[in-house]
Amino acid sequence: MTVTYVIDGSRVTGLEQFWEVIGEAVNGPGGYFGRNLDALADCLSGGMGAPDDGDFVFEWRDHASSAQALGHEETARWLRQILTRAHPTNRASVQERLDDALAGRGPTLFELIVEILTRGGAPGALRLS
Description:
By secondary structure, the protein is mainly alpha-helical. The protein has helices spanning 15-27, 37-44, 63-69, 72-85, 91-102, 109-120; strands at 3-8, 56-61, 126-128.
């Protein structure tokens, strides 16, 4: 039987809130389902509350609100944090992504998360509503 996890997009006001909302959707109050993009991808591979057989769907309600909250401004804030701890050999790449985000270009956090959820699940495992 397919399990549906509902992401309440109206509660996503930034990246930190997204982690809370998806954690609660999958594992209940205080639940964990990643706190960074790599961990989210790992959680999708099974365990951490997701069915190991991959028979689940994320229904992201009010995704337009989330898309705005996780847009270029929030992406730039996130990239600034990454830049402070990036390895010296990676700083130029992160800076370039930050410059793009500040200019309203490049993928947003919303787009990156959608890509991970789409790539990590079965076909049709993400429904945006």
